[in-house]
Amino acid sequence: MFPSLPRRLRAGATGAALTVTATLLSASAAQAAPEHPADYCAPAGCLDVLPPGQNGSATLVEILGHQVFGTRPRHSSSQLDMYDNLVHHYDGLTEERLDDFFLDATFGVDPDDVGRRYQPREDVTITRDADHGIPHVHGTTREGTMFGAGYAAAEDRLFLMDVLRRVGRGELTSFAGGAEGNRGLEQDLWRNAPYTEEDKQAQIDRVAASGERGARALADVDAYLEGVNAYIARADRNRSFPGEYVLTGHKDAVTNAGEIEPFTATDVVGIAAMVGGIFGGGGGGEVRAALALAGFQDRYGAEEGAELYAAWRTENDPEALVSVPGEFPYAGTPEDPVGEVLPDPGSVEPYDIVHDAHGSALDAGTAEEPAPPAATAPETEEEAPTVEELPREQRDELEQMVEEGDLSPAEGVFEDGVLPEGLTDPRGMSNALLVSGRHTESGNPVAVMGPQTGYFSPQLLMLQELRGPGIHARGASFAGVSFYVQMGRGVDYAWSATSAGQDVTDTFAVSLCETDGSEPTTSSRAYVDTSGTCVPFEELSVTNAWSPTVADGTPAGGYTLTSLRSEFGLVDSFATVGGEPVAFTTLRSTYMREVDSILGFQRFNDPDEITSAEAFTGASADIGYAFNWHYVDDEDIAFVNSGANPVRTEGTNPNLPIDPYSGAGWSGWDPDANGADYHPLEDHPQAVNPDYIVNWNNKPAHGYTSGWSTGPVHRGDLLDGRVSALIDDGHRFTTASLTRVMMEAGVADLRAQEVLPLLLEVIDTAPVEDPELAPVVEELRLWHEAGSLRREPFRDAGYYSYANAVRALDAWWPLLVRAQFEPELGEDLYTRLTRAVQIDESPSGSIGGGAPGSVNQGQPHRGSAFQYGWWSYAHKDLRSVLGQPVEGELGRTHCGGGDLEACRTVLLDTLAQAARTPAGEVYPGDEHCPVGDQLCADTVIHQAVGGIGMWPIAWQDRPTYQLVYQFSGGR
Fold it and tell me: What is the DSSP letter of 47?
């Protein structure tokens, strides 16, 4: 008989039912409280928040309850309003009010706040607080600590972990359905990080054999997976597993038939590859750069074209914001390059990894648009009821639905895909603000920092505290690799990361050949290896097939994904160079070395290892991914950049495709394991105890080569300008005042703050006589003077202050950029440059060319904004027109051909066009928002990676996981 409803519901915060807990251990043992650890937090000094909530798992009954009656599992959304409220109430924020918006991040759980304490095995105790259900894992052995970490992770994120490992295998559609978003995501991953199981195991074996820490890391992972799999077995027996397994056809709701596959160490490698590639990659794009260079030379001639290309490329713009002082040369274009390669015009053919498509994969078929849910969660600050809190008759209704197999309320929950297509595209994310004790009220440093990892329900990250032999840390970790805290705090220190994005990926032009000696073409599938032998590309293939399920009704279909691998990396495209066929391959320094960074994270969590800023800096050298690390303790702040930065041979230009047979490339390169000589720690940007540190994925230091459009305007200026001005005014920072700075910057429009003053300066060279346009100019001016904020005047106002000015700029910016630059550059070159760097990344807005969702338009509902765009180009060009000094000029003046009056005409004409654009065209609406709704278009929406959705929150460009730290003492 099907188990009764109470048995299937989880009565606690995040895991098994209380009846299950009782079977884990005797009641007396389960209630034994771990010793409360020493702590060094200053008052209001250890805080964090991670929306929407800790509990990211829901049984089938809980999913149906959510869809039918608007219920939510306890602790699934308990941090969402806390997080969102800050944007509405940061004015006048005091330390006493910080706990309205953040959780207490001191170690342990207050005895009065214990919600649940249990022991999944004898050497580990998990204590969850009553308010939010965060697991505090205390092991008496290291193995027990890791087992507990895995058990808690599976309780809170099992289905998400399964989704992530399927992405890592390139098997998402076979697991979650053939939705277009799922197809796009698994194809992105299989293009950039395809591995065989043998590849993954070889990486594990190499690190395990590297020494004591490597062997310990493998043992930690094994114990962690034991905990994960122990929970899977228990949840399967008790039918308390996530309901998404039923909705996707992997489990039967009535008979319990089907399997939740146990996790293996190679699954961890796949998840690490996905996470590291998204947030810790950098470089690539050299073919696009080569096409842009060719476009400049076609228009302006070889010599001037090369000079103009270099100006627009902004590798090391003298006006760019940097986080630390000093010069740290890396990855710049050499004066006398060796082995540079440019494709022949029109010859580049992208390689399509999709083969043998059938069914809905052929016609991009997707399911019909699902009906809206019968009920949605209340958009209030009050926690929604749980299923247990429903009236008896409603609980009976849910039980009857499950008994009869009526899952219709949950139909279509994954028909947009479980994760967004494009998730694996490298993006700059996260920010950090640190102020030394010289400028704080207490004399101890202050840090407000955290990663921006997107918004999902449940979140990709999860909170935890881990305490056992050789480990003591609290913070956030990515689901599925949470055996260590990846960002958070140790005993008397805290740390976080921002994506750095330095160039650790190069492109090679590999000669094609035919193994039978015949003439090669771009259709050839063999290449010349390092020994000069013609060998076939290795084919890395995965075959997927899908059928309609409750969660995703996409019609049946499938395909085979095949990546081509060479010694020189993965094939991205085919082309000719001087008439000879080549494959352009990309090689990332961390490819085949995804596991290596585990050693650095292990050290971050070890209190005996991290005893100072210098010790933390040294530990960062063991992390191969490209991150900027930020550190604070009671005396010091520090910044250090990590990454496996390959040493290039003399003359190698990493910013364009490389001829691998020319002697150019990586020094000491071993193609078998993709090892090379790497730049030592001292070559990486770093600093200890400057007056302050801010980073929002901006250039770490001068000399450290940056991406396109890294110039005088960067979203990091939103932080730097505010912090530096307060220091100049003699302000003494507190945790509250630095949080206010972060939050105000998080609702500022970069274009309005930094570029609009120059636009107005050009316009103000003569009176605006158009009676319809003059008020628009004045509204823009007033908005800028008021702070350039995209913010409601009060919570739930339903509109922005200066809403008309915001709409005018959203419509104006893309029209302005085209009119400012395309006449001089020409349509072809302008288009090529928009492919190298997008023109806009506002929170929303759909004017700018390209298909809906084009990167040259705003990106609604994402939160993160203003990282990539043409603001620096516009800023430099307008200053040139105005006759102001410009370091690192663009080479030619573009707006109005360099004539001030003509430029003013361009600005006014495009502004008039923008002002006439209906709100419905600027904000065309989507499945979340009505046409013309500006505020809704900006809102942040958590994408459901399961059956529990969340309500929208106000736009805010801030870390998803936010840390606020100040220590008043130390060991």
Answer: E
Residue 130: name the closest of 95, 104, 161, 148 by CA: 104
| Beta carbons within 8 Å of 85's beta carbon, 6+ residues apart | 100, 101, 381, 795
Q: What's the whole-model pTM score?
A: 0.95
389: which DSSP letter? G
Distances (CA, A) of 563 to 187, 421, 474, 566, 652: 10, 19, 39, 10, 27
CB 127 within 8 A of CB 111: no
Would strands 962-967 and 461-468 be described as parallel, antiparallel, or unpaired? unpaired
> Phi then psi for 114, rounded to 5 degrees?
-75, 120
Residue 945: enclosing H or E segment and its boundaries? none
For the beta carbon of residue 795, count every other beta carbon within 10 angstroms: 12
Q: Kindly list the strands in the beta sheet with 431-435, ordered across the sheet, starting from the edge strand earlier in the chain.
A: 103-104, 41-49, 962-967, 446-450, 431-435, 692-695
pLDDT reported for residue 421: 62
Angle at 49 between CA 46 and CA 50, to 5 degrees: 145
Residue with tokens 């740390």: 495
Is the distance from CB of 62 to CB of 948 less than 8 angstroms? yes
CA gap 843, 863 in Å, rounded: 7
Element (H, E) at 68: helix 60-69
Residues of the chain with pLDDT under 50: 1-30, 369-381, 426
Predicted local distance difference test score (pLDDT) of residue 644: 97
Q: What's the pLDDT at 368?
A: 52
Phi–psi pair at 753, nearest 5 degrees: -75, -40
Whether the CB-CB separation of 469 and 141 falls below 8 Å is answered with yes
Q: What is the DSSP letter of 514?
A: -
Q: Dump pLDDT digits (tens) for 201-210.
A: 999 999 999 9
DSSP for 737-769 reads HHHHHHHHHTTB-HIIIIIHHHHHHHHTTS---
Is residue 794 within 8 A of residue 929, CB to CB? The reply is: no
Distance CA 258, CA 497 (A): 40
Q: Are 667 and 280 in contact (CB under 8 A)?
A: no
User: How far is it, in rounded angstroms, from Cα 510 to Cα 246?
Assistant: 47
pLDDT tens profile 223-250: 999 999 999 999 999 999 999 999 999 9
Instruction: Give long-range contacts, CB 8 A cutoff, 24+ apart: 575-580.
Output: 575/287, 575/343, 575/344, 575/347, 575/348, 575/349, 575/509, 575/522, 576/343, 576/344, 576/347, 576/522, 577/341, 577/342, 577/343, 577/344, 577/509, 578/344, 579/344, 580/511
Written as six digits, the tokens of 625 are 């991914």
Burial 919-943 (b: 16+ CB within 10 A, else e): beebbbebeebeebbbbbbbbbbbb
265-279 helix and 197-208 helix, angle to the nearest 10 degrees? 90
Name, in order, each residue with C-beta under 8 angstroms of 895's C-beta and a sequence gap of 6 or more: 762, 820, 821, 877, 878, 881, 902, 903, 906, 907
CA distance to 149, 429, 611, 616, 844, per residue, from 604 (Å): 16, 21, 10, 7, 38
